[in-house]
Amino acid sequence: QVQLVESGGGLVQAGGSLRLSCAVSGVIFSNYAMGWFRQAPGKEREFVGTISWIGYTTYYADSVKGRFTMSRDNAKNTVELQMNSLKPEDTGIYYCAAARAVVRDTTKGMNYWGKGTLVTVSS
Description:
7-stranded mixed sheet, single chain, 11 strands, mainly beta, 123 residues
């Protein structure tokens, strides 16, 4: 059974930082590119970033570029999202997802999804 479990969400003031983690089980982790996505209240889910199978390549949405950083540890089957200089518009449920191919700027093509972790950024 494939499981993706996000953690690390919470309430933070604008300008602060959070580090999200996603633990993956039930698949050969290094066979999957990983993505982070988010969904703000009343809005559609959107792409945040992606990291390739070994972590050599990352790609970010323009809205988070320079503030968010993805990393992965294939020995621990985890992927992380370091979020700095947070803004109120970063508020939402953050999901990690796994895909056999690297996806960019889309929520389509992901094979497995976690249930999400809530990030709230207060102004």
